[in-house]
Specification:
The chain has 184 residues and is mainly alpha-helical. The chain contains eight helices and five strands. The protein has one domain.
Length: 184
């Protein structure tokens, strides 16, 4: 379980994201609706103008190497590209993480070229904050507590909120809230 002040910060930032969609307390959050409200456009990988070799690398050779990316346009436009090989539950979590980066005003990573090699800068703190806030927006503490009270298991919570069971277990571990093993 994480420190109480950090958890409260995470839950507060996540609630801010949920508030954008004006959701009732226990309603599922649709990250695609949130993206629309935040004026974030979704773009297809195919529309980025990448050469076929790069697209093959990203979708065929190593599709598990990436999930999503936030791109900022020169005139302030915001775009997210999702890995087309991933399922909708993964898209929910990945999109939420990218929206959390935006919400938290994280400085975008950059691509750096070293001869034939291209590397991406990244900050572990930013990645942790964005994942935790995104996960908390999808499954806030009140939803996890409510699920426990109702006797719902991880499978039922995952189904109701369009997330993976792994994400439910992550939230269980972060919050110290144990759901029953089998739904009542």
């Amino acid at each position: 379980m994480a420190a109480a002040h950090f958890l409260n910060w995470i839950e507060g930032k996540a609630q801010g994201l949920r508030d954008v969609c004006e959701l009732p307390p226990f309603a599922p959050l649709d990250p695609f609706e949130l993206a629309r409200k935040l004026d974030v456009n979704l773009v297809n990988l195919a529309d980025l103008g990448l050469n076929a070799e790069v697209v093959d690398q990203l979708t065929l050779s190593d599709p598990s190497a990436w999930s999503a990316g936030l791109l900022l346009g020169r005139e302030g436009q915001k775009f997210v590209v999702l890995n087309p090989t991933h399922n909708v539950r993964r898209h929910y979590a990945s999109l939420m993480e990218e929206l959390a980066h935006l919400w938290l005003k994280h400085k975008p990573s950059r691509l750096l070229s070293y001869g034939e090699m291209i590397v991406r800068t990244w900050k572990k703190t930013y990645e942790t904050e964005a994942y935790w806030v995104g996960a908390a927006a999808l499954l806030p503490r009140r939803i996890m507590k409510g699920a426990r009270t109702l006797g719902l298991d991880a499978t039922a919570v995952a189904e109701a909120h369009m997330v993976s069971e792994d994400l439910v277990h992550f939230r269980e571990n972060v919050l110290g809230i144990r759901l029953p093993k089998v739904a009542a």
